[in-house]
Amino acid sequence: MNKQIQEYNDSQNVEDKKICRILSSEINDFLNEAESKIWHGHPVWFLDGNPVVGYSKLKGSVRLLFWSGQSFDESGLQNEGSFKAAEAKYTSHDQINIKDLKRWLEKARNIQWDYKNIVKRKGVLIRLK
Hints:
By secondary structure, this protein is an alpha+beta fold. It contains 3 helices and 6 strands.
């Protein structure tokens, strides 16, 4: 595991640490070809330089974010922001459904919008996959 992500996980309170450890472990195992790093202060995984999944500590939960998640057609994910992102929020590690998470990660690999070049394209997203 990326050392900075490990440090991020370890800096959380007891329950959030459990959530972060499960998420990072499952993401690392499933997207083993992805590059992972702390990006804008949070753990994020990239495929070919494009952010696909990450998580962050919010005030009352840990948010799992899929950059292209609105295209997944998944009822367990809520739209986030004005682009294509969708999220799930967790307050307890036992809320994480591993089967759902793996399905979402497979979709993150296969359904991607080009966030890598969003600035160059002045906010216009183009579907990659």
